[in-house]
Amino acid sequence: MPATELLLSPATLPDDAIEVARIADAWGVKGWFKVIALSPDPQALLKSKLWFIQPPEKGARHFQGVAQLEMRQARFHGDGMVGWAQGVDDRDQAEKLKGARVFISRADFPKTEDGEYYWVDLLGLAVVNREGVALGTVSDLMASGPQTVLVLNYEEDGKTQERLIPFVDAFVDEVSLPNKRITVDWQPDY
Q1: Domain Ribosome maturation factor RimM PRC barrel: where (predicted)?
Q2: pLDDT for the residue 13
Q3: Which of 36-40, 57-61, 127-131, 144-148 holds the top average pLDDT?
Q4: pLDDT(1) > 50
Q5: For the chain, which domains are there?
Q6: Which one-letter DSSP state was computed for residue 108?
Q7: CA dihedral 56, 64, 120, 33 (to 10 degrees)
Q8: Strand, coil or helix: what is 161?
Q9: How far apart are CA 7 and CA 36, in angstroms?
Q10: Taking the mean position of all CA atoms in its chain, how far away is CA 31?
Q11: Residues forming a β-bridge with 175
């Protein structure tokens, strides 16, 4: 029996699209697929009914450009996630999604409480201390046990350096997304 053709709806990536996951492989025989979320708490991915996908950067490509998946269901399964989309009805079709990059619109992210931030919103923010000394720009965040750590890039002697600051109330005075700045109680020589 020939493999089932994968028919995806072409789409345009929304201006506010954020990469949130990868499709790992097929799961079961009815078109479900395993999903590797890029966040430890992928509520936005679970909430969104419309996922945008791009082909994998490496490996086989069974589609080109951007396509959209209308999600029937996405849920936790064991220590991972699985998803099932309209038009993906068997294992062969789901296997053709392997490695696809998953994006969703930032508008689909759940609202945050005061003092809560999505990591993606912190990337690129300038970090200064209480004295106004520039400490760098947030280039990454990393989970480090019970806390998150800001990874800053800064220039010193013509070379890019890295500085780590715990993202906890003891050191973070203010996060101003409109001003694209984080103020911290931290010194350059720490």
Answers
A1: 119-189
A2: 95
A3: 127-131
A4: no
A5: 10-108 (2.40.30.60), 119-184 (2.30.30.240)
A6: G
A7: -60
A8: strand
A9: 22
A10: 24
A11: 182
